[in-house]
Fold each of these.
Amino acid sequence: MSAAETGSRQTNSRATIEACLAKGRPALMVYLPVGYPTVAGSIAAMEAVIDAGADIVEVGMPYSDPVMDGTVIQAAATTALERGVRVDDVFEAVAAVRAAGATPVVMSYWNLVLHRGVHRFAADLKAAGGAGLITPDLIPEEAGEWIEASDAYDLDRIFLVAPSSTRQRLATVTAACRGFVYAASTMGVTGVRSQVGSSAEDLVARTREVSDVPVCLGLGVSTGEQAAQIGSYADGVIVGSALVRALTADLTEDGATTGELDPGLATLRSMTAELAAGVRRARPQVDHD
C-alpha cells in the first residue's frame, strides 16, 4: 500500500497507522527538517520520501538548542536556521506533505510553540492540514495548555516514552497521547546505530499492557533489515538521522542538490524505498494486497 493509498484524506496519524496495519504491515514514518538544504529543497525531499513509500512525515522544526537530536540533525538544523527558516515555512511544508498524499505531523521543541502562542500554533497547524504535534521536551503534567488547544482543533498530541519508563509512567503518558505514542528505542539522542537496542521490543510490549494507543518506535533505525525487525512488533517504524544523512550525500558544499534525479534526491529515495520494503516484509505471515 502506497502513501497515497493510506491517504492524504486520513484526518489523523492513528487512522493512517491503522490503515497500514489493516494491510498487514506497520506504518513507515520519516523525519526531515524544514529548511535543509533550503525550504524548497526540504519540501522536495519530503515529496521524494512520500513517493518512495513513506506513510507519515515527521516535519521537523529546526531549533537552536535541540537537546534530543544527534549530530546529523543538529547540523542540518543549524544550516536551516542560518539560512533563515521560519515557523511559517513549517506550515508550508505540512501543506505540501498533505497534498503529496502522506500524513504530516510536526516535531517541535516546546519553546517555539510557546513563542508563537499555543492556540495560534494549533490553529495554523490545523489550517495547513497537519495531523498533530510531537513534543520531545514537553511532559503531560506540564501540557495543560497544549491539551486544551489540541482538543479544540482536533490535533494529535504525541508524547515520548523510553526504556526507563515505569509502568505508571507509561500509563500516564499514553493516557495523554492521541494519535500514537513515540517510543524511543534507546536512551540518549537521535542518531544512526548499527543495531536497535534489545530493550525496544520490551518497551513496546510494556506500553501495550497499559494502553491501546498505537506504538511507533524510533531512534537509530537506518536499514531495511532494522525496519523489518522493528516492524514485526511495533505499529510504526520511525527513521530520521539516516535519511538526513542520505540527503546530505546528495548535496554539494554550497547546499545545492546533485544527481540525475530532479531535484537530485537519488540517495534519499533509494534509502526510503529500502525502508519501505523492510516494513512490508516485517510480517511475512500476512498476505498483502
Note: Residues 221 and 239 are 6 Å apart (CA to CA).
Amino acid sequence: MDKPAKHKWIFPARFRAGGYSWKASKLACQRLREAVSEIKKVAKKDPILGAEGAVRLMEKIWPALEHVDSSSGALGSAVNKSLDALVPIVVNAPADEELRKRWLDRLWRAMEEDGVEYLGPVGDRWGELCGSADLAGKWADDLVSTLRFCWTDPNPGNYFGGTTACLSCLLAAGRYEELLELLELCRFPMWHYRRYGVEALLAQGKKSEAIRYAEASRGLNQPDSVIDQVCEEVLISSGMYEEAYQRYGLSSALGNSYLARFRSVSKRYPMKDKPEILADLVASTPGQEGKWFAAAKDIKQYELALELANKSPCEPKTLTRAAKDYLDTETEFALGCAMAALRWLCEGWGYEVTNLDVMDAYDRAMEAAARLENLDEVAGRISQHLRSTDSPAIIFVRQSLARRLDIGGN
C-alpha cells in the first residue's frame, strides 16, 4: 500500500481552526494561493505526497475560514480557484485503493462539516476522485437510495448534500441508464444536475440526444451561456463547425471584455474571416456597437472602428489611449479616436472622468491635427461643439479646457 512520505508542510500552521477573523478575507485569499503553490510544487516531485497535501488543505478550509466575511465573493472565488488546482492533483495521484478510500473518507467528513459548501466542487467530481469504476460504484450504492428518497418524497424541501457526488459516481461507474432514470425524478430540473445526464449520453456516443437533453435543461435561472458552450463543443467534436457557429458560436463567447469575446470566437472558428465574425457579434448587440471598437481596432479595421465608436457610447479613456498609440502609424485614425473621445465626454459618458482625461483627449486631437496640417479646422470644430449647448457635461469640458481654448469657463 502506498503511503505518503513524511514532509514538513508550511501551510497547515496558517490554516488552524478559527485562524482568520471577520475582516481577513484578503489575507485568507493570499494564504490559499501560497498553499496551493506549495502543494503543486511538491506534487511535481511526489504525486502521492502532493495529493496528501491537497486533501489536508481541503480538510482545513472550512475550519480556518469559518469566521471570515465572504459577502464580497472574493473568498469564494479564491476557494473555487484553489479547488480547481487541488482536485486534479488528487484525481491523478497513483494511489492504491486503500489509500484513496482513506482520502475519500476524510474529504467526506470535511464536506459534512462544511458550513457554506466551500467544498461543493469536490462533490461535483467525486466519481473522478474515486479513481476507479469499482470504487465509484460502491459510493454510488451508498448514496443513491438517499438521493432517490429525497427526490420522490411527496413532501418537498428535502436536501441531500451528496447529490452531485452520487450523480458523479454513477457516471464514473458507467451506470448511465440508472443515472438518466434518477435525473427524471428531480422535481425541479437543474443544469447543475442534468449536466451529468449530458455526459452520460455523450459517453454512449449519443451526441444528438445529448444536445436535445441539454436544450431541454433551459429555464428560469439556468445558465444559458454554459448550456450553449456544451452544445457547441458537441457539434465541434463532430466536425459540424458551421452549425455550431450559427447556433451557439456567438452566444457562448467567453471573456471579461468585448475584445476577449471576439478573440474567443475567432480562436474557436479559425476557418471564418475575422471581419465576418466581428460583424455578426456587432449585429448581436444592437445599441452597443461602441463596445466593439477595440475588437475592430485589433484586426486593423480602422474605419469600422471609428464608425462603431461614433455609433454608440464608447469609453473615452479607451479612445484617448488608442489616439496616443496610433499617433505615429495611423494619424487620421488617432485624430478620429480623440475627437470621438471628446464627443462622448461632452455627452456625459465615461467612468470616473476627471479634467485630466478631458485635457488628454484634447491634446491628442490637437497633436494629430498638427501632423495632418489641419490644426485650425479641428480647433474650430471643437470650439463650435463646446458652444452648442449648456449641458452639465459640456460645461465640465469647457472648464477643463478653459486655459487651452479662449472660450471662458462657462
Note: The chain has a mean pLDDT of 94.
Amino acid sequence: MDAMDLKTIDPVRRQAELGTESTGLSPMDPPEAFAPPGLEPIPPAELHPFLRRLGEEHARLTEALDGLETVLQEVGTSGFTTNVDHAVMRFLEVFDRDFVSHSREEEAVLFPPLHQRLIDDGEHSRGETVTTAVDVMCGEHLKAVQLAAVVLNLLRVGSCLPDERSARIVIGAALREAENLIELLRLHMFREDNIVFASAQRLLSTAELDAMARR
C-alpha cells in the first residue's frame, strides 16, 4: 500500500482534509454515550403502560444508584467505614431483588418479539451474525450481574483478611468495581429508556404489549 492509497482510506487524514465543517462521525471526536446521533426518545406518558412500568422500575433503581454513589464519594475523605460497607450491601440487595427480576421479565417477555421486529425492520448488524439492540441489552444484563457478584465476593474476602494492607487493596478493588457497575447501569437504563422502549412502542402492536402486560 503506497502513501496515496493510505491518504484515501485513512479516516483520520480524510477528516483533517475535509475540515471541521464535515458531517459524520470521527474516531477523534466520537459521540457522547448519553447523546447518540439520531436519538428520538418517546415521553414516558406516551408509552404503553407495560413499557412505562419498566421505565418506572428504572427510576427506583436510579435512586439506589444515587445513594450508593454518594456514599462511595465519602471514601476519599473518610476511608472505608462500616457505613460504606452497609451501604454497598444494601444496594446489592436492591440490585438482586429489583434489577435481576426486571431483567428476567424483559428477556422472557419483551425482548424475543422485539428482536425479531428489529430484524424485520432492518435495524440489525450487517455482519455474518445478525445482532440487534436486544443482544446488547442482554449482554449488559449479564455483565451487570457479573460485576455485582465481583463486588460482593471482594468485599467478603476483604473483610476476612487479617492483614490490613491486603484487606485495603481487596476492598479498594471492590469499590472500583462498584463504580464500574454504577456507570454500566446508568448507561444501560438510558439506552433502554430512550432507544429500546421507543423501538418497542413503534414496532409492537398495542395488542402485543397488552398481552405482555398480562403475562
Note: The two ends are 59 Å apart (CA to CA).
Amino acid sequence: MQYLTTISELEALFEPVGEASLRKEVAAVHPIYRAWIEASPFVVLATAGPAGLDVSPRGDPAPVVMVKDESTLLLPERRGNNRIDSLRNIVSNPGVSMIFFVPGVRETVRVNGTARICIEPDVLALFSKQGALPKCVVEVSVQAVYFQCARALLRSSLWSKEQIANRPTVPTAGEILAAVTDGSVGGKRYDDELPQRQAKTLY
C-alpha cells in the first residue's frame, strides 16, 4: 500500500487551484452569502475536543441560524439526546466549521470560525419555539465563508426524485439500538413509540 506523507507529495497529485475557488472565500458574511444562509433550514456543525471529533446535524424552519451581523452567527441548542458532544468540544476548543444546506439546491455554504456558548436570557428569548427556549445559543465568530460547488450533490443525486422514491431500506433506530445493546434497549416498541415521543419533545 502506498501512502502520502508530505504536503508536497499531496499537492503534486492535484492541479493548481482556480481563481474562482480562491476568490469565493471571504472573511465575513457578505450580503450574498447572508441571503443564502438565511434560506437554510439545515446545518451540520463540526467540532473537535479532548474526547475527539464530533459532527452534528441541526435543523429549524429557515433560517436555522440567526445572522446577528457580518461577523456573528447565532445557533440555538434545541432539545436533543443530552450528550452535548459539540458543546463539550466548544468549551475546550472553540474552533468550529459549519456546512449549510438548502433543499433542492446543489451548492452548499461553508462557514469556519470560533464559537462560545451564550446563556444570556435576552438572547435565548430570540429563539423561542412552541413556548420553549433553547438551553443555550452557540455564538459563532466568523473567520471564513465560501460556497462549495455542486459536484458532491450531483454525484450523490441527493435531491433527485428518483433517489427519494427508491431510497434503500436501512435499519431503524430501534433495530440499531437492539443490535448494539444485545437487545437491552430498543426494538420494535422503541420504533413504535418514537414518532409520538419526537413530536412531543421537538422543542
Note: The chain has two domains: 21-156, 168-200.
